[in-house]
Structures are given as structure tokens and as C-alpha cells.
Amino acid sequence: MDSKEKIANLLIKIAITILMLWAGYMANTVATLQRTANANSTQIQVMKSTEFSISDGYNLEQKMETLIFSSVGEIKDCLNKIQQNRQCD
Fold first, then answer.
1. CA atoms within 13 A on the CB side of 4
2. DSSP secondary-structure letter at 8?
3. Is 35 inside any structural domain?
4. Number of domains in the chain
5. What residues form the membrane-spanning segments (predicted)?
6. Residue 19 sits in which domain range?
7. Within its chain, how far is the Cα of 17 from the centroid?
8. Are 29 and 22 in contact (CB under 8 A)?
9. CA-to-CA distance for 58 and 53, rounded, in angstroms?
10. Is 63 part of any domain?
11. 89 lies in some domain
């Protein structure tokens, strides 16, 4: 895999990570709206798949941060190697 492909793959990983984080945020928003809408009824109907607790959000945020920072580090290393006319791993 050449340097450009390596950088492109890392950028795709970052984009997917951001989309996953946004999807989690939207699921949390939907769950909150459902709980608010159903607060006055006896049955609160929030689908389990949209449950998103604070600890889940924190863990997801930490994982995303780690992935993004490691990807950025890999891109920087790869760019340095390109400047030195070497192949990226």
C-alpha cells in the first residue's frame, strides 16, 4: 500500500468515527425527546436500541478521541516519511 492509500484509509477511518459519534448523539437526542414526550403517560416507550447513558457517551467519546489522535499521529508520521522519500508502512 503506498503513502497516498495509507493516508486516504486513515482519513476514511476518521470520517467514519465522526459519523458514528454523530449517530450516537442523534440516538441520544431521539431517546431524550421520546422520554420527554412520554413523561406524562404511564408507559415510557423508549426503544432499548436508542438508550444512550452518560457513561456510554463518555466511553464512546474517549474511544473516538483515541482513534482520531492515533490516526492523526499515523498521518503525521506518514507525511514525514514522504518528505524523506520513504514508503509508509
1. 0
2. H
3. yes
4. 1
5. 7-27
6. 3-83
7. 3
8. no
9. 9
10. yes
11. no
Higher pLDDT residue, 22 or 32? 22
Quick check: is 23 in a domain? yes
Question: Residue 77: pLDDT above 70?
Answer: yes
Give the C-alpha separation, 4 to 80, whole Å: 13
Confidence (pTM): 0.39
Cα–Cα distances (Å) from 7 to 11, 54, 65, 73, 75, in that order, read 6, 33, 18, 11, 6
- DSSP string over 17-81: HHHHHHHHHHHHHHHHHHHHHTTTSS-----GGG---HHHHHHHHHHHHHHHHHHHHHHHHHHHH
What is the mean pLDDT of the segment spanning 31-50? 54
Written as nine digits, the cell of 25 is 448523539
Query: Grid coordinates 467519546 are at which residue?
Result: 61
